[in-house]
Amino acid sequence: MPALGLGTWQNDDPDQCAASVRNALEMGYRHIDTAQAYGNEAAVGEGIASASVDREDIFLATKVWIDQLGHDDVLESTEKSLDRLGVDYVDLLYVHWPADAYDAEQTLSAFEELREDGRINNIGVSNFEPSHLESAQEAIDAPIFANQVEMHPLLQQRELREYCEDADVELVAYSPLARGDVFDVDVLTDIADAHDASAAQVSLAWLRQKDVTAIPKATGADHIRDNFESLDITLSDAEMARIDDLDRTDRKVHPDFAPDSW
Length: 262
Ligand code: NAP
What we know:
The protein is of the alpha/beta class and 262 residues long.
């Protein structure tokens, strides 16, 4: 899975969304993240189709919404996602949240069937705590490949990182720029100044150096490029430690169906 992807939540205007995806792919991104709930799978598909990059070189991920997590609904809604995206398969299909119609056995057995049929290459989950991950992995034989959760320097997910490392589950960081809050953190802007970089780039480099994949959402070419250039930045051990020491728990995404423990 490419370590940097393009997020697309709230990239709602179809022409703009298609242009963002095309720009990102032509700039070198090879990982695109969408979801049924974002209402933009068709626009993402259009961006992919219009870019001069082969489908098989792109890591494409989407997510099944919480009211579609019954066994048959997973199968049917995923076919619709593939149709809208204009592709034969996705590289990663996530359970968007462990909520509403989610049932580990029912939901994930359908994900396993989709994997056996070649409609998805990998099974993912999102917003899962260690307890959810444990029961998910017990429910199926196929591996849970990735868990997509909110993670950034202001929400470092230490416990979950440790769990995922032991369980061999990749972590994907959503809202990796804390939805813009990283720009107001002195430690990050100081380090950014030292690298002649942006606080966005520093946050993304910090995640990459923790072996976490990040999927910043960016709309215009400037932000898309700024984030891509984070791949050229390497933070020193001392800089990593300064960020590690930020002691904050600023969760930006907290809907009422989030796990009780949040
Ligand atoms: P984010 O990536 O932390 O922040 C996006 C915001 O930062 C946008 O306002 C964007 O503006 C701005 N931005 C991006 N790059 C910038 C740069 N280099 N300089 C200045 N501003 C910059 O927030 P997010 O959209 O919440 O998270 C990213 C992706 O994660 C989502 O798009 C979605 O794909 C995924 N996600 C998943 C879940 C889940 O439940 N699984 C939840 C939330 C998000 P512009 O748009 O104007 O460029």
